[in-house]
Specification:
By secondary structure, the protein is mostly helical. 77% of the residues lie in helices and 0% in strands. The radius of gyration is 14 Å and the shape is globular.
Length: 97
């Protein structure tokens, strides 16, 4: 079943990220990808900007395929997935997850 609302998606997202190792790899990828994007914009290093999603997704997909053994949610809902990566990171950092 494809989630119709973000609230439904969030529950599916959390189930797909149940393993702590998968969540950790997502957090590392999100931080590194964001750092590359922001650093690339500030320093006008467009190669860093192009590398940002590659690095971010490499860690996230490694968590799904190598640790969790499931399919990334990115394929079905890319924007909700990106938002949820940041939401999960924030919850991890604040102890809310």
């Amino acid at each position: 079943m494809r989630p119709a609302t973000y609230a439904e998606f969030w529950l599916v997202y959390l189930k797909a990220h149940a393993h702590p190792g998968n969540r950790l790899l997502h957090a590392v990828g999100t931080v590194l990808g964001t750092g590359l994007l922001l650093g690339g914009l500030v320093l006008r290093r467009w190669d860093w900007c192009l590398a940002a999603p590659v690095v971010g997704y490499a860690f996230a997909w490694g968590g799904h395929f190598g640790v969790e053994g499931n399919r990334p949610a990115t394929f079905g809902h890319p924007l909700w997935s990106l938002y949820s990566d940041y939401r999960m990171l924030l919850l991890m950092l604040t102890g809310g997850l």
